[in-house]
Amino acid sequence: MKKVFTSFIVLFSVLMIYGQEDVIKNGGFELGEDGVETIAGLADWHMDKDAPGSGWWGDALDRHVTLTSDDSTTMYQVVDVISIDSVLYDLTFWAGDSWNTGKVVVVASTSDADTSIRTTLVTDTLEIGVDDMALSFGFSENSAYVGKNLIVEFTCTVLNVVDGGAWTNFDDIAMIKRLPGVNNPPSANAGPDQTVEGGDLVTLDGSGSSDPDDDPLTYNWISTFPGIVLSDVNAVDPTFTAPDVTELSFYSFALYVNDGEVNSDTVLTNVTVTPAGELIRNGDFSERVPGSDPASTSLKDVMHWNIDELRDSLSGGIWGPMVTLASFDPTLYQVVDVLENVDVTYSLTFSARSSWNSHSVNTIVSVSEADSSLRTEIASAENLMGIDPPGGINTSAYAVFKQTTAIPALAGLAGKKLIIEFDNVAYDDGNDDGWCEIEFVSLVKEVTSGVSSDRLNGLTIYPNPASTVLHLNSDRAVSRVNIYSILGSLKKSVAGNDITRVNVEELTPGLYIISLTTDQGVVNHKVQIK
Questions:
Q1: Which of 164, 219, 265, 277 has a 20 to 30 Å separation from 48 between CA atoms?
Q2: Which one-letter DSSP state was computed for residue 37?
C-alpha cells in the first residue's frame, strides 16, 4: 500500500489558499563539476564527509546520485529560509535500489548559520516500490522556526548486513513551497504512452490531472494530425480510431486543464500505431518465451526473436518495451516471412538510440533455408545514432529509422525464409564497448505486381499501383466507392448502380484506402496511386 508521510509542525487554524514555487536547486543533478563524480562536485548539494563513497553518474541530461549507507551521513541541501507566513512544503523524489537497499530515509531539518549542526523536524523511512517517495509538512504563521534554514536530507539503510552496505539511486528531487493568498495552478496529466494497431479504438486518459485547491477542472485536448478527430476535446477521456498506417507511426496529443482561473502547463502523451498487417511479431519486445523466468533480462527470453550466442555470454538484455544490444553481441534477428514468386516490397521501421557509444544500428535483410542460423545477406542499411565521442557525446535521443527492400519475382528466392537482423556497431575507439536500445519494430509487406494478388471474395482491383483509372472486377454490384487518405480523410466519392471503374488521376500520388459498398456489405482495400 502506498503512502505519503504528512506532518504539520504547527497545525493551521484557518483554511488558506496557497501559491507555489519549487525551492529545490539542481534537483536533477544537472549541475556537476567536470572531472568530478563525488557529491562535492555537485552544485547546491552537500555531505558532511571529506571523502564520501557516494557519487553522481551520467551526463547532465540523464544524471542520478548513488548514496551508500557506509557513509553514515546524509546528502543534504539548504532549500529555504523559513518565513513569517504560513507555509506548506511538498517534497517528492525518485529512488531506486542499486544494491542491498533496506529503506530510503528522508529528513526535514533546520539549522542556524552552521548547516553542519541540524535539528530534525520530521523524518520517514520509505520502501522502494511500496511507498510514494514523498514528505509533506508545514509551518504556521509566526512559528518558532522563523529565520532558520530549512534543509532536506537523504540516506538509506541496509537490507541484509551480511551482504555489506547498501547503495541507493536518487533522482528528480522537487520541493514545492505553498504560500497563502494566491490560487495554485492545476497540474495536467495526459496519461501513459500507448502502442496500438491501426484501426483500434484508442482512449486517452486525463484522469490523473489534479488541482491542489480541489477546484473542478475543465479539459482541453489538442490533436495536430490531419484525419485524427477526437470524440470530445473537452472530455477527460476522449477516443479516436487509430489510422490504418502502412508503417510504424507516432502521434502526440497535448492536454492542458483549467481550474476556473488559470491554465496548467501543457503536457503530451504519445500513441505509437503499428500497421494492422505487419509481419513482425512481438515488435515491442513485451512477450517472453513461455516458462522463462519473469525476472530474467536475457535476450534468449524474448519471444520470436533469436540471437546466435550462449545465454551467459550476452551483454544485451530485455528492459520493458525495448531491448539493449551490445556491440560485441551477435545480431538479433527474426524470421518474418517465406518468399513467394511475386514482386514484393518490405518496409521496415523501428526506433533506436545510443545508450552508450553506439555509432550505428545496422539493419540487415537476409534469407535462409531451413536452418536460420545460416543466413545470406541481400540488403542492409547503416542507421547512424549521431553521437560524437570526441566531443563528449556518447548517448542520443530516440530516433525513427526506415528501410525499404524490394525483392523482384525473378530474384530466384521463392521458398526461402526472409529474416530481419539488427547489428549494433560501436564507435571505433578500439574498445568495442557500444550499447544501443531498440524498440517498436514494424515490418509491412506490399505485393507490387501490376494486378493485386488479393482476391477479396470475388473482387479484384487493378492496376495497383494505378495512375489514371482503377478497374473493379466483381461478382457483386458496387453502389458506392469512397477513397480515403491513409489518415482517414475522404478524397473522392462516387455513387452508382454498378460501378466498374473510377478515375483517380486527380489524386496525389501515395497510399489510399478504397471503400466499396456492395449489396453484401462494405469491403476496404489499400491502393497506391502513382
A1: 164
A2: -
At 221, give phi and psi (nearest 5°). -95, 145
Judged by average pLDDT, the poorest of 257-261, 503-507, 526-530 is: 526-530
**Three-state DSSP state, 419:** strand
The 10 Å Cβ neighbour count of residue 61 is 10
CA distances from 530 to 177, 235, 439, 515, 527 (A): 61, 40, 32, 19, 10
Q: Confirm if 263 and 185 have CB atoms less than 8 A apart.
A: yes
User: For residue 9, how many other CB atoms are within 10 A of its CB?
Assistant: 18
C-alpha cell at 88: 506548506
- What does the pLDDT look like over 174-190, one tens digit per residue? 999 887 766 778 999 99
The secondary structure element, H or E, covering residue 68 is strand 64-68
C-alpha cell at 8: 504539520
Question: Are 258 and 181 within 8 A, CB to CB?
Answer: no
Which residues, including other chains, have CB under 8 Å from residue 266's CB and lie 6 or more apart? 188, 222, 254, 255, 256
Q: Is 53 exposed, middle or buried (0-12, 13-18, 19+ CB in 10 A)?
A: middle
Amino acid at 530: K
Cell of 269: 502523451
- Dihedral class, residue 79 (left if φ above 0, else alpha if ψ from -120 to 50, else beta): alpha
For residue 387, how far is the Cα from the chain centroid?
Answer: 20
Give the whole-angstrom CA distance, residue 202 versus residue 188. 19
Per-residue pLDDT at 333 exceeds 70: yes
Quickly count: other Cβ atoms within 10 Å of residue 247's Cβ: 19
Can you give the pTM of this predicted structure? 0.53
Residue 172 cell numbers, joined: 528528480
Strands 134-139 and 5-8: parallel
pLDDT at 485 over 80: no
Alpha carbon distances (Å) from 177 to 22, 25, 173: 6, 13, 13
81, three cell numbers: 529560509
427-454 mean pLDDT: 79
Q: Are 23 and 175 in contact (CB under 8 A)?
A: yes
Of all residues in the chain, what percent carry a pLDDT higher than 90? Answer: 59
The three-class DSSP label of residue 410 is helix
Would you call 388 exposed, middle or buried from its count of C-beta atoms within 10 A (0-12, 13-18, 19+)? exposed
For 229, phi then psi, to 5°, come to -115, 120
Q: Per-residue DSSP letters for 92-134?
A: EEEEEEEESEEEEEEEEEEESS-TTS-EEEEEEEE-TTTS-SE
Contact present, 54 and 67 (Cβ < 8 Å) = yes
The answer to whether 266 and 206 are in contact (CB under 8 A) is: no
